[in-house]
Structure formats: C-alpha cells, structure tokens
Write a structure and sequence with these properties.
The structure holds 2 protein chains of 2 kinds. By secondary structure, chain A is an alpha+beta fold. Chain A has 19 helices and 20 strands. Chain A has 3 domains: 140 residues, Orthogonal Bundle (DNA ligase i, domain 1), CATH 1.10.3260.10; 193 residues, DNA ligase/mRNA capping enzyme (D-amino Acid Aminotransferase, Chain A, domain 1); 123 residues, OB fold (Dihydrolipoamide Acetyltransferase, E2P) (Beta Barrel), CATH 2.40.50. In chain B, strand 16, helix 7 and strand 17 form a beta-alpha-beta unit. Chain B has 2 domains: 185 residues, Ribonuclease Z/Hydroxyacylglutathione hydrolase-like (Metallo-beta-lactamase, Chain A), CATH 3.60.15; 130 residues, Rossmann fold, CATH 3.40.50. At the A-B interface, helix 5 and helix 6 of A face helix 6, helix 7 and helix 9 of B.
Chain lengths: 528, 338
C-alpha cells in the first residue's frame, strides 16, 4: 500500500504525460503480482466494484469530528476524500498494525467482509495511515481516482513495456480483467498472449485521411469509390455476443453505461462501426444534444426520453463470430444491410451511399453539407475494395470536410497552458460586440497557431494585462483573432448565448482594429 | 483592571492601542508603529516612529532603504515605556528572524499580540515563548483541522531522495525571500545536502542579512552569475527562487527544471497543482491547528482575539472549549505570504 500511495502522489504531481508513463512503467516492473494489476485497474478505471461506499467514509469522519468544523474544512479543501484524509483523528484505542497490508490484501479483505466488518477494517486502516495513504485508500475504495492519466495513456505504457503497437493492447484490453496476471506474464515473456476469443472486445478502428484536393480527387469515380455524409456525432463501435453488449468510443473506452437505451436495443451478434447520434421524432439532434448525454455515467430516464441515442452504421467488422474485416468494403456493406433488415429503425439506420456521377457532384454535395449548420461535417469517400484495417491506411478512406466558418473576434481573457506550454498564455477566450458596444465571450481556443505565434501572443498579453481572476488574466480588448469553427449553436454557457463547435485560431489579425471585429448578430445569422 | 476593549481598538489603519497611542502592524503609514516582524504585510514603509526588534529593523532597512523614521530597537524581554502608562516588551514568536510577540501591559492588564508564529522547530530563529496573559491576540492562517504540519526532516528527505533519483534535473524550490528561504537551506544542510545552493537575485540580500546575524548556510552562488552553458552545473542541485518564478520565464532557462514548492498550503493538493509544482513540500512558518489551540490554552488568556486567516473555525473551536473568542478579520493581510 505504501508503494501504491507513493505512485499516486508521483503521478498526481507530474505534469508531462510522458513522465507519467515512465513512472507507471517503473512501478509495474518493480511491483509483484497481483498488486500491480490492481493498481493498474485503479488507475485505468477498470475496477468493477467499490471496496466501501463513499457515505461510509463520510459518516465515519462526522462521528469523530465536530460537524461544523468538518463543514468548514470541506468547504476549504473542496474535496471529500482529501478532507477526510487530512482531518482524520486516530481512534482512542486504535488497533495498530505492525505493517500496512499490501494492496491486494486490502482488496481481498474488504471483499470478504460484511457491512460492519468493512466499517471496522476501514477505521483500522485509516488509523494506521499517513494522510497521503488515507487519500489513496479513499480514492481507491470508491473508485474516484483522478490523477490525470487517460486510459489510452495507460495502454500506451503497457504497449511500450512489451514493445508492441498500441492496437495490440487495445484489442486485448476489453477481454482481460484485473489483476491482469495473464497480461503481465505475456509482457514478461513467461506466457503466450492472453486468449480473448470469447470475450466482448474492442477492435481498433479504421480512420480516414483528409482529402488532398489537388492529388486525390482525380482518383475518385463511382465505380471505385462510395460516398456518404460525414455525420457530426461521435464514432462508436458496438460489440455484442447476444449475452452482453458494449459500446466503445473511438479510443476504446467503454461508454455503454452512458447509453443504456441503445445497449438494450441491440439483439444481434456482431461488431459494427458507425456514428452515435441523437434522434427524436423531429430528426437528428445537434452535437450539442449529444453532448448532454456524453460523460453522464447514469443518464436519467427523462434525459434518455428527451434525447434518445441512435446508431447510424457504416461498417461491420464481424458477424456471428466470423471476422469480416478482410472482406472488401462493398461486401461488408452488403453484410451490414442484411443485419439491418431486422433492426428497430428508431435506433438503427444505415449511413446511406450518396449517388454521384463525377467529382463535380461531390463538390455540390459538400456545399450542401456546408449549409446544414454542422449536422453534416462534410463527405466521407471510401475505396470500395478497402479491407478494414486499423489505423490510417493511405488512399482507403478520405474525409472531405466543409470549409470552416470564420469570424473576427477580440481576445478578452487568457490562461496559462499545460505541459510544454506551461507558463505561456496559450488558452484564449474571445468575444464579439453586441449592440451596446460590449464584448461578449463566444468561445475559447488553444490551438491553431504556431509556436512562434504563441510566443508573440504571450508577449502581447504580458504587456496588455488588466485584472486577474485566479488563473484567468483579463487583457486589453485590442487584439483580433480570425477564429475558425465548424458550426455554432445556441447555448446558455456563454453570456453571448452561443457556443462554437471546434473553434481554433485561424489567423492573428495584428493589423485589424478591435472595433472592426464581428458583432454577435453576424453569428446569430449563421445559426439560423 | 481595564478590559481589552477599553484600550484596544480596530481602526482603518489596523489594530490600535489607545493609551500607548500606537498601532501594531498597521497597513497604512501612521505616526507610531509597533512591528512584530519583517514580512511585507506586517511591516510597511512610511511610519513616523517604528518600534521593533533589531533584526526586524534591519530587515525593514533592506526592504525600504531610505525609509528612515525614528527607530526604537528593542531586544527580546527588554522593557520600553511607550507612554508613561504602557509598558511594551517583545517575546520570540518563532516565525522568522527577529519575529516577536508584542506584550503590552497597562493598568494591571496584559495583552499579547502574537503577530505570526509557529511552534515547530526552526534553526533560523529563536523559538516561540509562551507568555501568560489576560488577552491573547492570535493569527489563524492555518486554523482548520485539516492542517497538521509534518516534520520538516521528512519533507527535506523528499528533496534528497529526488536528487538521487533525478540527478540530471535542476531542483527549483519556490520559497519566500524572508524566513522560508533560509529555513529550507539550513534544514537541507542539516539533512546532509552538501552541494552549493543557487539563489535567485530576489533572495540574496535577506540571506546575507541572516549571515550577518550569525546564521551559516554553506556555499551559495547567485544564479545570475551563471549564463548559458554554465547553467548546466545546476543539474542535480538545489536552486531557490521566489514562488512566482515556478511558472514564469525565469525558470525556463534552467536545465531540466523540476518545480518544487515549499509552503504550508502544499498540504492541499489542488493548491500545489495550481502552483504547477511537481513536488510539494509542506513547510510552514505558521502554527497548525493543534498548535494554535495548544498555544491559546497555554497563555491562559481569558479572552482571545483572532486577527486573520481561517478566523471562523478557530473562533468556533475556542468557544466550544469555553474560551471567550472573537474574530477581528483585519484587512490587509495577504493569504499567500506566510
């Protein structure tokens, strides 16, 4: 447990992703089974059970601490586990331990106990621990660890340990379970790769290249390529063996919990690839609608009813246990259509193929997408003979996105960035003018500029500071950015009433007077 | 016997003693100021007469050169009749070099104004002495049960361990110029760090002042003496600089810099992250929760006034223990400076 606590502290305080991966790899190499597997699960968020309830730790601290003082402390610290870890008072007659149990001993012990036993054991552990160890235990026990390490980063750590491609780990990941002894045996060369043929698993997805209009367009004919809309939802993979269904994000994160309505509607044994959208009787919802459901681990019945999840399929990777990935796209599409014959149309639709005679037709369709205000991001153009290969194979799939919208906005606030940009002002909030001549913020962007431009902007900000609000630095309203974005929609998050999708800095208009930047009305026109 | 309310007042300039016609740590210029210690939020320039310990006077001279009012230097325990009816003396506060509790005696009543203080050991100043009194005026910077300051040796061991594991990294510790800097250097020496320290320019004059008072920190080198390639020698060594440099351009010139922050606030994780520290050392110049309560009880004061910090929690706890307490919430005290 000491090592685990130290690991979490190190990860928590380290900023760079690379350094975090190094720290985790060192821990995994130097720690025995099964402790390292449990630690890995805690960090990757794959533990499937709580050791104790969050409420238990809260009621324990209330019992041994004045409630008023607890409340003042909690308000100040702002986080329950840390408040408890710091304010914990040892029991009057503590049961002292000669050594702290190992991580796996702790997990086994909690799981073997009933309610009262769990309570006693938790008190005993907290009595014997330092504040950082208590914090680690409380976070582990209630699965609340946030140490700034993504599931992808954890997998990359493992891939580097074994010197294999990330895809290999991603494919394995959903077929193996904590404490991952089979995984480590394979990494250390003591065993074969874990057999996951029977489990529901994520298959790394195939990605598209942005089209090069000069070189690629001439390759495209209706005989060799198919075209479809590029939908503005999120890319997902549904994997089901009839007993169990999972929905994975593009990066292999299991997001089934957020979309129980869709999971329930699945009654096939297949792995399909497509776009997750919101669809009501009025049609497809905006990305904003979808966003309401993303990251909600347990969506309410009301939310599900108002914003039902819908799957628009465009590929099929396996059917009834048979791998279809080596078939050409045309044949996979036929298999997909056969699968769809029996599906509920409220929940499932096919991303239909668009008819075209030549590239001019495609150009016209892309302009149509342009007018959809973000519902369509553009076109997908796929080589009919392409097999399904994970990663980004050349000349197989192209994406041809709509031109972005552009507006001139005025820089209002800046924040310092992270990682290699730390200490530079690299996050910018910008706004447009209203009728009364006030600037109202419409969005925030932190990319689109070169390192050299970053330094110039940083320098400008340092010379033009106004007030500071915590980490947020207000600046003189004098610098104009040409901001690019894919769409805009109404939003209550910003004072202006609008939010931008995928905003980035297109150009810095050093030359432009702030008074000549765009007005809110210009943005309102785009939304209509 | 007069009650404290009758002869102490809260005025816009700060805490005021009526029969002594003096302010204690006022935050605006006044005709006569009793200064407990040299931190900028307690010792401000522009007063007429300043009464303080010799060390605090020297610190103020470094900070406010040319600010030369009438200065009265008072050693610890030395009596001074501020006015014919009020006797003043200083007791060590254990906070920084020269820090003092101001003891005011008037009409058979004794008030102790603690200024900032701590009870944990500090090899760079005299330890806190308990003075029994009728009214104790205390700070409350870390007055929450979540603040329990760990042993300084354990915190310094973190640095030594890291120097071993990352000998290629420049260990930059963010410290305040007065007190924290010297305490960290001294305790690192005691823990066995033998290489030179590298000091940011803002820390040098006060460190020299400490040396003039007989404190030895071993070899240290002004960081600005090293330019370009010469900075490579800082790898695997300790550089000290003001906290603001951790996230600023100055620190980017250090080779493979590891940002470390030394402060009492580091007990709270989010605070450490805000500072962009990759290592947090809990080093506080203030009393923690338990020490605040213990100190109040040891003074046997019948009444306690609380000047600044987490005043509500301390007031609540003292009342719970049957001690008459009230929060003054003096303005002008900076949260970040400790």
């Amino acid at each position: 447990m000491e090592e685990f606590s130290r690991l979490l502290d190190e990860l928590y305080f380290t900023n760079s992703t690379l350094a975090k991966e190094k720290i985790l790899a060192n821990y995994l190499m130097s720690t025995p089974d099964p402790d390292r597997g449990w630690a890995l699960a805690a960090i990757a968020g794959t533990l499937s059970f709580d050791l104790f309830k969050r409420n238990l730790s809260k009621s324990l601290i209330i019992e041994r601490m004045d409630p008023e003082l607890f409340q003042l402390s909690y308000d100040y610290v702002g986080e329950l586990s840390e408040t408890i870890a710091l304010a914990w008072q040892q029991s009057e007659n503590p049961v002292l331990m000669s050594r702290l149990p190992s991580l796996s001993e702790i997990i086994v012990e909690f799981q073997s106990r009933g309610k009262e036993g769990i309570r006693q054991y938790l008190v005993q552990l907290l009595d014997n621990m330092t504040p950082p160890q208590r914090w680690a235990l409380l976070k582990l026990g209630t699965r609340g660890l946030r140490i700034g390490m993504s599931a992808r980063s954890v997998k990359r750590t493992l891939a580097n340990m074994k010197s294999v491609d990330l895809e290999v780990i991603e494919e394995l990941w959903h077929g193996i379970e904590p404490p991952y002894e089979d995984l480590f045996a394979w990494i250390e060369g003591r065993a074969d790769i874990p057999d996951i043929s029977n489990s529901i698993r994520y298959l790394p997805v195939m990605l598209a290249h942005p089209i090069d209009e000069e070189k690629d367009l001439e390759r495209i004919t209706p005989a060799t390529h198919m075209a479809e809309w590029k939908w503005d939802g999120i890319r997902v993979q549904i994997s089901s063996n009839l007993d169990e269904t999972k929905i994975f994000s593009r990066t292999g994160d299991d997001i089934s919990g957020s979309f129980p309505d869709l999971v329930e509607a699945v009654d096939f044994q297949a792995v399909v690839d497509g776009e997750l959208l919101i669809k009501t009787q009025e049609g497809i919802g905006s990305f904003n609608d979808l966003q309401q459901r993303l990251n909600k681990k347990k969506p309410s019945a009301k939310l599900i009813k108002e914003r039902p999840a819908h799957f628009r399929g465009y590929d099929i990777l396996s059917k009834d246990g048979e791998n279809l990935r080596s078939l050409p796209l045309d044949e996979r599409r036929l298999a997909l259509q056969r699968l769809y014959e029996n599906l509920n149309q409220d929940r499932f639709s096919i991303s239909k193929q668009l008819e075209f005679k030549d590239v001019d037709d495609l150009k016209q369709m892309r302009e149509e997408a342009d007018k959809s205000n973000g519902l369509l991001e553009g076109l997908m153009i796929k080589y009919r003979q392409s097999t399904y290969v994970s990663g980004r194979p050349k000349h197989a799939w192209y994406k041809w996105k709509c031109d972005p919208y552009l507006l001139d906005a005025v820089l209002m606030y800046a924040q310092r960035g992270h990682g290699k940009r730390s200490s530079y002002y690299s996050d910018y909030t910008f706004g447009l003018w209203n009728d009364a001549g006030e600037l109202l913020p419409i969005g925030k962007a932190y990319f689109g500029f070169t390192d050299e431009e970053l330094k110039q902007i940083d320098n400008w900000i340092r010379k033009n500071k106004l007030k500071r609000f915590g980490p947020v630095q207000e600046v003189k309203k004098e610098l104009v950015f040409e901001v690019a974005f894919d769409s805009a929609h109404e939003s209550t998050r910003h004072k202006s009433g609008y939010a931008l999708r995928f905003p980035r800095i297109h150009r810095i208009r050093w030359d432009k007077p702030a008074g000549e930047a765009n007005v809110i009305e210009d943005l309102a026109k785009l939304v209509q | 016997m007069a009650s404290a309310e009758e002869w102490m007042q809260i005025r816009p300039q700060g805490l005021y003693c009526v029969p002594a016609d003096s302010y204690i740590d006022p935050h605006e210029p006044v005709h006569r100021a009793i200064i407990t210690h040299g931190h900028a939020d307690h010792a401000r320039p522009g007063h007429g007469q300043v009464i303080a310990t010799e060390e605090t006077q020297a610190i103020m001279q470094v900070r406010y050169a040319g600010d030369a009012p009438e200065r009265i230097l008072l050693g610890y325990g030395q009596n001074h009749a501020v006015t014919p009816t009020v006797n003043l003396w200083f007791a060590p506060a254990g906070h920084v070099l020269g820090s003092a509790q101001a003891v005011l005696e008037y009409n058979n009543h004794r008030i102790v104004i603690s200024g900032d203080y701590k009870r944990h050991p500090d090899p760079t100043c005299k330890p806190f002495e308990v003075v029994q009194c009728d009214t104790f005026i205390t700070e409350a910077t870390f007055a929450l049960p979540v603040f329990s300051h760990p042993k300084l040796e354990d915190e310094m061991a973190k640095v030594l361990r890291s120097l071993e594991v990352f000998p290629e990294r420049t260990h930059l510790i963010g410290v305040y110029a007065l007190g924290k800097c010297q305490r960290v250097m001294k305790t690192l020496r005691q823990a066995g760090y033998e290489k030179p320290f590298y000091l940011h320019g803002a820390l040098i004059s006060l460190t020299e002042l400490y040396e003039g008072c007989g404190y030895d920190f071993g070899e240290w080198i002004p960081a600005s003496d090293l330019k370009g390639k010469a900075r490579e020698e800082m790898r695997g060594k300790v550089v000290l600089a003001p906290p603001s440099t951790l996230a600023d351009r100055w620190s980017r010139t250090l080779p493979d810099m590891l940002p470390i922050m030394a402060s009492g606030w580091m007990q709270i994780r989010a605070r450490a992250r805000q500072r962009r520290a990759e290592m947090a050392l809990i080093v506080s110049d203030h009393a923690d929760w338990q020490d605040l309560i213990t100190t109040v009880e040891e003074t046997q004061a019948k009444e306690v006034w609380i000047t600044h910090g987490r005043t509500d929690a301390l007031e609540y706890e003292l009342k719970r223990r049957g001690i008459k307490a009230k929060a003054l919430d003096l303005i002008g005290r900076e949260e970040e400076v400790e």
